[in-house]
């Protein structure tokens, strides 16, 4: 694990047209420039080759590095930077060539592009710094207008643009609103999207991938925050980052300025989830294990060392956490063998999206039953009579032995949730999910008190951090804990929530209704079963049958159960073609 992170890019396989255009045009300009510098005095005013560099006659009067004063004094900087320009240009042309070769590793190409951009950036900064340290002897003779128009603005491009290339961030969006996949009472037309980040290292083919899920608009805002966090890890050694994952987590959550737009919630928290998960992906690949196996093989002390216990020690101390984990050490091997042989139980939401017709719901339920599913979730909350009709259809299709869950996606006030559910209780739902605002801890408690034991309450996909989960547990507000892999700050924070759920005897049923979420949370459920809960009885992991074809290592279902992922990493790496085609706004699928 001696590799160090050298570049951060979002949706890295797709290089935007503006970057490729800049690299090409700037390389041609730089070629012209080093030709002038290396062929002085023939290229200068009065020289035999000056006809090729006529515009430099004016610039040489603005910047003496390019004029006779530097040449006559034998100032070596102009020639030295011209020689570096040759190397920089060769790297740029190599970069452009590699981008056209589908067989070339994207990390290698981007590392070369990064090196050229960094060379341009550092060389230009040095070029600017020479002036104040030399008393502005090369440009101090100009008036401010000429200096601004002919020196500051043109040379400023060579600082600004390379900086953008080094930390270029984009987003991926799938137009699911066209088919209403993912539709519910609150999110009527989602375009499943991913703010996607890749950490490239100085080791070929060794990359860390991470993402966070959104529903379309606003994805670019998450990408902006990912950029702010990712730069903190450039040139960091992986072994140093994973030696203290609690501290690594706090690099993101503890920034004294960025936390003002949180703290530990909202867009910055979504971005933290993507970045932290990318580091876990990198770590797991380094030890050649899937993330779940990486965690399962930890000692209780190593597991706990990954967790930030700030704000939760009133309900769970590190010492208590270690004791919980020690209780399951003896059964780890048995439970690992069980998931390898039989997988992990799941339920399907794919048949229950609110925008589907009744006929489509029937068809999808029958298909899901044939695939081995016995647990089904229905979206509710938009129209009560439609909910009643749809619940009757689902119950008819799955029979009394099938398990039905309902999900309101936060649309109700507290009393409205209680009243609405009274008319749905005859269909015997196991739980009502997100009956009200995810921030209303006491509202959830009131709903649970009014409906229990005829049905139960579940929530979690919009719970932003371990602190709100702590309060839900303390208030006895939920019966099912629905962790989300990237709504909270990545694996580290999920581990804390799993332990609190165990202490309060609340089963974990992870949320997976979004692109990449099934790939993520399968690891978390296996960690919960093997290390924390010690059982998978009375538990199930959500499954939605959408967009898995875009992943290099997609989930594999068998008889309605998740099979244990065995490929090293966090299973979140997307295929290159998918990234290219769905990058917003200039991917092929967005231009049709």
UniProtKB/TrEMBL annotation:
Pfam families assigned to the protein according to its UniProt record, in alphabetical order: MR_MLE_C
Cofactor(s) demanded: Mg(2+)
One MF term in the entry's GO annotations: magnesium ion binding
Signal peptide limits: none
GO BP, sorted A to Z: amino acid catabolic process; carbohydrate catabolic process
Transmembrane stretches, start-end: 21-42, 82-99, 111-130, 150-169
Keywords, alphabetical: Lyase, Magnesium, Membrane, Metal-binding, Transmembrane, Transmembrane helix
Residue span, Mandelate racemase/muconate lactonizing enzyme C-terminal domain: 358-454
SMART domains xrefs: MR_MLE
Residues in coiled coil: none
Protein name: Mandelate racemase/muconate lactonizing enzyme C-terminal domain-containing protein
UniProt organism field: Parasitella parasitica
Gene transcribed to yield this protein: PARPA_12573.1 scaffold 45109
């Amino acid at each position: 694990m001696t590799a160090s992170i050298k570049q951060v890019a979002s949706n890295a396989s797709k290089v935007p047209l503006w970057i490729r255009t800049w690299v090409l045009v700037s390389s041609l300009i730089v070629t012209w420039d080093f030709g002038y510098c290396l062929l002085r005095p023939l290229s200068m005013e009065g020289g035999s080759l000056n006809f090729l560099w006529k515009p430099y006659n004016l610039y040489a009067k603005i910047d003496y590095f390019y004029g006779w004063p530097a040449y006559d004094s034998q100032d070596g900087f102009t020639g030295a930077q011209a020689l570096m320009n040759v190397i920089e240009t060769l790297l740029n042309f190599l970069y452009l060539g590699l981008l056209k070769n589908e067989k070339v590793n994207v990390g290698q190409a981007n590392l070369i592009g990064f090196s050229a951009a960094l060379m341009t950036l550092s060389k230009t900064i040095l070029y600017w710094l020479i002036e104040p340290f030399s008393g502005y002897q090369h440009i101090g003779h100009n008036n401010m207008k000429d200096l601004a128009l002919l020196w500051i603005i043109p040379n400023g491009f060579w600082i600004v643009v390379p900086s953008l290339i080094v930390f270029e961030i984009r987003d991926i969006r799938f137009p699911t609103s066209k088919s209403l996949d993912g539709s519910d009472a609150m999110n009527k037309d989602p375009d499943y999207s991913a703010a996607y980040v890749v950490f490239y290292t100085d080791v070929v083919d060794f990359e860390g991938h991470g993402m966070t899920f959104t529903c379309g608009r606003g994805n670019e805002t998450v990408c902006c925050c990912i950029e702010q966090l990712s730069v903190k890890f450039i040139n960091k050694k992986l072994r140093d980052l994973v030696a203290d994952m609690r501290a690594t987590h706090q690099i993101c959550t503890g920034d004294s300025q960025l936390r003002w737009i949180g703290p530990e919630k909202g867009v910055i928290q979504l971005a933290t989830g993507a970045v932290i998960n990318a580091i876990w992906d990198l770590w797991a690949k380094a030890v050649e294990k899937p993330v779940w196996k990486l965690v399962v093989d930890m000692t209780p002390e190593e597991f706990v060392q990954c967790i930030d216990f700030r704000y939760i020690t009133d309900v769970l101390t590190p010492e208590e956490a270690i004791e919980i984990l020690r209780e399951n050490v003896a059964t780890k091997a048995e439970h690992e063998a069980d998931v390898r042989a039989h997988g992990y139980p799941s339920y399907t939401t794919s048949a229950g999206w609110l925008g589907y017709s009744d006929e489509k719901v029937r068809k999808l339920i029958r298909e899901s039953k044939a695939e081995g599913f016995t647990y089904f979730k229905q979206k509710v909350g938009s129209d009560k009579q439609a909910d009643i009709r749809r619940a009757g259809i689902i119950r008819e299709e799955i029979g009394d032995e099938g398990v039905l869950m309902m999900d309101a996606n936060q649309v109700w006030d507290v009393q409205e949730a209680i009243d609405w559910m009274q008319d749905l209780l005859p269909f015997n739902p196991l739980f009502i999910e997100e009956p009200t605002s995810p921030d209303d801890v006491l509202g959830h408690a009131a709903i649970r008190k009014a409906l229990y034991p005829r049905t139960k309450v579940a929530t979690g996909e919009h719970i932003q951090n371990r602190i709100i989960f702590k309060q839900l547990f303390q208030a006895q507000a939920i019966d099912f804990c629905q962790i989300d892999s990237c709504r909270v700050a990545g694996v580290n924070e999920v581990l804390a929530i799993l332990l609190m759920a165990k202490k309060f005897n609340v089963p974990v049923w992870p949320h997976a209704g979004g692109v990449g979420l099934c790939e993520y949370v399968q690891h978390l459920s296996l960690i919960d079963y093997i290390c924390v809960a010690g059982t998978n009885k009375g538990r199930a992991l959500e499954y939605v049958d959408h967009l898995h074809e875009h992943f290099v290592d997609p989930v594999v279902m068998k008889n309605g159960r998740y099979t244990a992922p065995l490929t090293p990493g966090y299973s979140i790496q997307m295929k290159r073609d998918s990234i290219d085609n769905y990058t917003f706004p200039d991917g092929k699928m967005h231009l049709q």
